[in-house]
Specification:
293 residues; alpha/beta; Helicase, Ruva Protein, domain 3
């Protein structure tokens, strides 16, 4: 969680007591909640906002209130796959069929596979997948990992600076402490100029989680492999599996997850339609990475 006094068992217990007291303070500060806001603000959620603001209750309260206003207006939990499916046709962002060594959900991003021009829809697609990644976290795990593959990337399909800034803002302000690690794999030299601008939008905590990996740099490769099983990593990312993104099969998986999401939030008017659609699709993903032979 954090370390104010040391690493002994007694110190860890003191840290936990301190954290619990801060969570209680934040609960009192934000007051009674109802509906989706009540369901969203679990103890684990409050802890993430406190961690993001260094356990300052006032700053955490402001951050959380801003998120609740954003979620009330944007309604990320109500986005359904059929609304953003066109954005996923090339597999430019999708949930991998494996977890990292810590059990975190993995999102694979391939900016070189950009296929649309609407910034609004692109961000909506990413928000949908962030919500989906959280929905599929194992018990006790709060974070996800990103693998960003720069194969095919160039300035012609580069994310506009405005879009990058908006994406970073949403991730940092409304999904605090959700990103565990992000590996940028083999970005071309020309990307460095873009990165010099983008990195100023990142807070220090997020910046420290971004790691560059180059195939010829042994240390960076070993760092990435310390987070992922080599058998799971796609060959494009230096691993031993073959990346076979199948949009049709991934769409079937998302239809199942849309039903799970509707059940979780419990107030989706389209739930009956989702049940009907989900009954017609297979529950198992076929877009997973498979071992190379």
């Amino acid at each position: 969680m954090f370390n104010l006094w040391g690493n002994s068992q007694q110190d860890q217990q003191s840290n936990e007591v301190y954290g619990e007291s801060k969570i209680k303070e934040l609960k009192v500060a934000i007051g009674p909640l109802t509906g989706h806001s009540f369901k969203y603000c679990t103890d684990a959620c409050l802890k993430r906002y406190l961690e993001a603001r260094n356990w300052n209750v006032d700053k955490s309260k402001k951050m959380l209130e801003d998120t609740l206003k954003w979620r009330s207006a944007y309604k990320p939990e109500e986005i359904r796959w059929d609304e953003v499916a066109i954005e996923g046709e090339t597999g430019k962002v999708y949930r991998a069929g494996f977890h990292d060594r810590q059990g975190r959900t993995v999102l694979i991003l391939r900016p070189g596979m950009q296929n649309t021009s609407s910034m609004e829809n692109q961000i909506k697609h990413l928000v949908y997948l962030l919500e989906n990644a959280m929905l599929n976290l194992p018990p006790g795990q709060e974070q996800m990992a990103w693998l960003i593959d720069f194969t095919g990337w160039s300035l012609t399909n580069n994310v506009p600076l405005k879009s990058a800034k908006e994406t970073i803002s949403i991730l940092q302000n409304h999904y605090p402490e959700r990103l565990g690690i992000a590996f940028l794999y083999n970005p071309p030299r020309i990307f460095e100029a873009f990165w010099k601008i983008v990195k100023y939008f990142l807070d220090n905590k997020t910046f420290q989680k971004v790691k560059f990996v180059y195939p010829k740099n042994k240390d960076s490769v070993e760092l990435m492999r310390s987070y992922f099983d080599e058998e799971n990593l796609p060959s494009e990312l230096g691993g031993k599996s073959i990346l076979n993104y199948n949009h049709e099969e991934f769409s079937k998986l998302m239809a199942q997850d849309d039903l799970k999401c509707a059940d979780f939030w419990g107030s989706d008017e389209k739930i009956s339609n989702l049940r009907h659609c989900a009954a017609e699709v297979a529950p198992e993903p076929v877009c997973n990475e498979t071992p190379a032979t």
